[in-house]
Amino acid sequence: SLQQFNVTSYRATALAITTLEAFAGMWINAFIVCVLCIVWVKKKTLNSNEKILLLLGCSRFWYLCFSWIYVFVSAIFPYYLLVHPIFQLLQGSYSFFNCCNLFMSACLCGFYCIKIVNFRNSFFIYLKVKIDRMVPWLLLGSVIFSLIFGILVYNTIDKAVCNNLNFTSPERFWKETIGIEEHFFPLLFLTGFLYTTSFIVVIFAALFLLFSLWRHKCKMQTSSINSLSMDAHIRAMKSILSFFIMYSINFMFLILTLIYSMTYQNHITFLAYLIQYAFPGVHSLILIFSNPKLEKTLLKILSCLKCKLCMR
């Protein structure tokens, strides 16, 4: 029928676009993880910035991996999601790594803020001195909290959905799973709270950073300091501003996903997921070009590939 054809076409389009975004993002984040692991082996240690980037790259890699697996199974083998506990495991794993992704991004922005800002407030000075010792505990706390959230999602779906709802057809299954938030408002509220908390951290960190860097830039202009240093601060401001804009767009579509998933509006939900799957790859690419070590390694690899292609 026409309706079945439209559903099949929609799933095929979603699978194609998600595959492109997921694999591109996975390669980008795998590159970050590999470079930092090599640095870890050589130096026997990592600084705080590299620790955050390493865990952020790992969480984004697996987030994109489980996102793609979920879309692939949904499009090609939808009946497999009816088998216990495949659906619960995919949703629980997706929620865990998505939560890690949000928290690690917020930690990275907060770390940059504390390290760069030049406020003379005693609280900022205390944080600047202690931040390197705090980072491992912040990362551990983020992973533990994300794990608890993933387990909560798994148990909620396992007990309430799979035990209380009867899935007699794929269409019935999709309507029930898309409308899951109607049955689990506390879980929906907690998800929105996590999104909002991480976004607030990013907002304040970005505003403090931009204000501090702009004030420092004005001082450098009045004192006629080296233009190279000026260019470095301008690049830092552009990087922070681009991250803030991207995170704001991602947050908006995260909220839209929570809202419109209740009403089963495919097009809006698809657009929201499209932005969410693109964010980890695009932002990680910006992080690569903002980090001299990662950028140098990437350019070296690209130049080697170019030479090999030219030789052929």
UniProtKB/TrEMBL annotation:
Keywords: G-protein coupled receptor, Membrane, Receptor, Sensory transduction, Taste, Transducer, Transmembrane, Transmembrane helix. Gene3D superfamilies: Rhodopsin 7-helix transmembrane proteins. PANTHER family: TASTE RECEPTOR TYPE 2, TASTE RECEPTOR TYPE 2 MEMBER 40. The chain crosses the membrane at residues 12-41, 61-82, 94-114, 135-157, 193-214, 240-262, 268-290. It is a multi-pass membrane protein. GO terms for cellular component: membrane. One of its GO terms (molecular function) is G protein-coupled receptor activity. Signal peptide: none annotated. InterPro entries: TAS2R. Belongs to the G-protein coupled receptor T2R family. It is found in: Membrane. It comes from the Eukaryota. This is Taste receptor type 2. The keyword Transmembrane applies.
